[in-house]
Amino acid sequence: MEKQLLLSGKKVTVSFMINGDWQTAIYQVDLDIHRDEVVALVGESGSGKSTFATAVMGLHKANQSKVTGSITLADQELIGLSNLEMAKLRGEKVGMIFQDPLAALNPLMRIGDQIKEAMAMRDVYQPSEYKQRVLELLDQVGIVNPARTARQFPHQLSGGMRQRIMIALAIANNPDLIIADEPTTALDVTIQAQILDLIKRIQEKKHAGVLLITHDLGVVAEVADTVAVMYAGQLVEKAPVAELFAHPKHPYTRSLLKSNPSIEQEQDDLYVIPGTVPALAEMDHHKDLFLQRVPWMQELADQPIADELVEVAPQHFVRGEAWRTFEFPEEQVQ
Amino acid sequence: MWKVIIRRLLMMIPQLIILSVLIFLLAKAMPGDPFSGLIGPKTDPKQIEALREAAGLNDPWWQQYTHWMSNALHGDFGMSYTMHLPVSELIGSRMINTFWLSLLAVILTYLIAIPMAIFAAKNEGSWKDQVLLVYNSITFGIPAYVIYLFAIFVFGFVLGWFPTGGTVSPEASGWLAELGSRIYHMILPATTMALLGTTGIFTYLRSGILDEQNQDYVKTARAKGVGENAIFTRHIFRNALLPIAANFGFVITGLLGGAIFAETIFGYPGLGQLFITAITSRDYSVITALILLNGVLALIGGMLSDIIMAIVDPRIRIE
């Protein structure tokens, strides 16, 4: 059975005005999220993951950025909506969880008031019902003493509790789509699993779609259904999670997986991808930008390639042709 | 909350003791004493010495200090040597004048500076912002008395809109007319002081707003669907006010210092004017009392800042 399509991004391109020039941060990103699906968007810092999420939320500053292409949320086109129209959808149709919960909560407002504020925008509850609804939400995200926590301020809570509050904020209006931007990065390792588990549980219960932005492949393997790998503002590979881990194709995906420590294999040194993501001004999106960082594949690095990803196996899309010939140096020797 | 306030009040006691000891010792270190001026060719040094002995000036300093302090606590700061009036009486009448003038000036300062800062921050980088930044640098940089003189000259003498001195006109009869006259006398000095005093509040608030509007919690509020007006008042502005609250104590502390110039030039008989008169005539008992008062104001200002901060910022409350 085909799942209901929630979010559909088509050729999403975001440019920023930097020093008087328009510079393209993400280029022609196609990404769909269905109901009951967790899509992980993976990539290094600076690859444009958050830029995509921010574009979906319509939170890029209008005078300093340009978003083109098409983003539809439940069949409604988002690009071109006024800030006021977009504000109505935020929270209601799509909720967002941020990376650093301490910075993402207003230090001067009580937790209960911050959650109430998210609901007060909607006029769905009677004033007397808010308190009960806040307590329910806090209970849903696993807060042990909701009444007490609702009266507290963000600095009085632990990091894990704060992130639970962020989740409560994001789901306060029962949105169909939840965007989680690196939700576990700022947390203790022991807390990370709890928070992931909570997100997964809430997603299943509400039959929501989740866009999970992360650079942590362990997180991906744990909760994602579909993985999209992003490099320098473009998708380079997209596949169901099992397929991607079993048969990674694109050189970047393979390098990422190779640079992740593994329990099965004894390793003295981790693989390190040489170089860094190029600066925005140096990105030529008509080439496979990752190949610049592969010293032994320089002859392919300058060749122009198509914008679209190619389906190489059912539901498995890869960008360019370099993956067919790419090998790591030690594999070449053997 | 009450615990914070009580704790802060208790902290003021040692501060006050240290302050008063320092001021007493500094006053003692000044050359001469009340009787030095009485010495003439015909006075018997023995007689002077007897007066000194009787006044307790030959006692050890700590005895003199406790004597002075216990008198001060009873509101007795001694006699003014030049005006031959009790210091407390001199200060008392003028303190009320200074209090009302300062209060009006402070209120006007906030009323001018806060909208100015909001307007500048909302138009960051535009010519409107630039104009306000330049205005605040100029008013901060120019010596206040230059503008005071200019204001008196233009609005007092040339245009004749405002009186050029005093607190109340002698013709005013009846409490309403008197109140009106008092306010009328304060408008020019208070407005001029306020227009020159915006820089601190303006700068703190403007940069506060610019900082806060890029914070993550503002993004969270947007992601919740909160409207821009509510985001500004409930989130950005409230957080940006914190440095202003901290600054409030300094404003209180600076009042007496600011009043010295303003009252002297505007001919307004308040503490500031008294201070200048006392210093130029070496009226030590008045100077000492005023310095003590200024110090106490500084301590109260600091305490108010702390208490206000504790009220507005939950992170500062000590549980």
Automatic annotation (TrEMBL), chain A:
In terms of superkingdom, the source organism counts as Bacteria
- Please list the GO biological process terms of this entry: peptide transport
- What is this entry's stated membrane topology? Peripheral membrane protein
What UniProt keywords apply to this chain's record, in alphabetical order? ATP-binding, Cell inner membrane, Cell membrane, Membrane, Nucleotide-binding, Translocase, Transport
Is the keyword Nucleotide-binding assigned to this protein?
yes
Task: Tell me where it resides.
Answer: Cell membrane
Q: Is GTP-binding among this UniProt entry's keywords?
A: no
Query: Entry's SUPFAM superfamilies?
Result: P-loop containing nucleoside triphosphate hydrolases
Query: A Pfam family in this protein?
Result: ABC_tran
Q: ABC transporter domain location, by residue? A: 7-257
Q: Name one GO cellular component term.
A: plasma membrane
Molecular functions per Gene Ontology? ATP binding; ATP hydrolysis activity
Gene3D superfamilies in the cross-refs: P-loop containing nucleotide triphosphate hydrolases
Q: Which family does it belong to?
A: Belongs to the ABC transporter superfamily.
| Name recorded for this polypeptide | Peptide ABC transporter ATP-bindnig protein
Organism name:
Weissella halotolerans DSM 20190
